[in-house]
Amino acid sequence: MKTILVASSKGGAGKSTLATNLAAYFALDGKRTVLVDADPQHSSTRWAERRAEMESAVLPIDASSKRAWRAWLPDDAERVVIDAPAGSMADDLQHFIEHADAIVVPVLPSAMDIEATVGFLNSLSKVSRVHKRQLPVGLVVNRSKPWTNTSQQAVEMLKTWPYPVVAQLRDTQAYVVLAGLGRSLFDYRSAQVRDHQADWDPLLKWIKKA
């Protein structure tokens, strides 16, 4: 069972978008997938409920009680994606971090959002497994506009950090529309979404190695 923790101290960075699309990818790949929703907004749970009748359904688990979520995992779960509560630091996520195989941190490409993420990453660096490089942490630039100077400068800044930039996801309203349908980019094969799907390839390869 591989467990991916999606976490950020900055609200609105795209945590639930990452978590739901990852969960859909795993489910469509034939893996029995669980989406652990620890965010008070429960956006991930509502998304999972909307795709409950699909062959690639994802089981949502309410993790409002941080200590109890492990007891609710099915024995046959193959992939677990955790949508962490926004605004949390590493100490708040201890019960998730200790079971994670990788941590994915979404960051918006602006100086303000990058600065807001520094404190969270500093708190992660104090986690023993992270410090010893036994627990990989990857940054995902979300809502990127790679043709703009702002996004380009943000990526260059992030590349100087000790954690790798494992993907850049371009800005598109498709994520908002698909979330409302309980769908993901990976549910479609059209040319319109193909380029956006390709944005995920480096992240998926990184997770596979984790």
Structural notes for this entry:
By secondary structure, the protein is α/β, with parallel strands linked by helices. It has nine helices and seven strands, in the order βαβαββαβααβαβααα. A seven-stranded parallel sheet has the order 3-2-4-1-5-6-7, sandwiched between helices. Helix 1 packs parallel to helix 2. The two termini are 12 Å apart.
By CATH, the topology is Rossmann fold
Mean pLDDT: 92
What is the total tally of β strands?
7
The main pleated sheet reads as:
7 strands, parallel
Low-confidence stretches: none
Query: How many domains make up the coordinates?
Result: 1
Return the structural class. Answer: alpha/beta
Q: State the helical fraction.
A: 25-40%
SSE arrangement, N to C: EHEHEEHEHHEHEHHH
Beginning-to-end CA distance, first to last residue: 12 Å
What percent of residues are in strands? Answer: 15-25%
Gyration radius from CA atoms, angstroms: 16 Å
Query: What would CATH call the architecture?
Result: 3-Layer(aba) Sandwich
Main traits of this protein?
alpha/beta; Rossmann fold; 7-stranded parallel sheet; 210 residues; 9 helices
What's the arrangement of secondary structure elements?
Layout: E1 2-6, H1 15-28, E2 33-37, H2 43-50, E3 59-62, E4 79-83, H3 94-97, E5 102-107, H4 111-125, H5 128-131, E6 137-144, H6 149-158, E7 165-170, H7 174-181, H8 191-199, H9 201-209
Parallel strand pairs: 1-4, 1-5, 2-3, 2-4, 5-6, 6-7
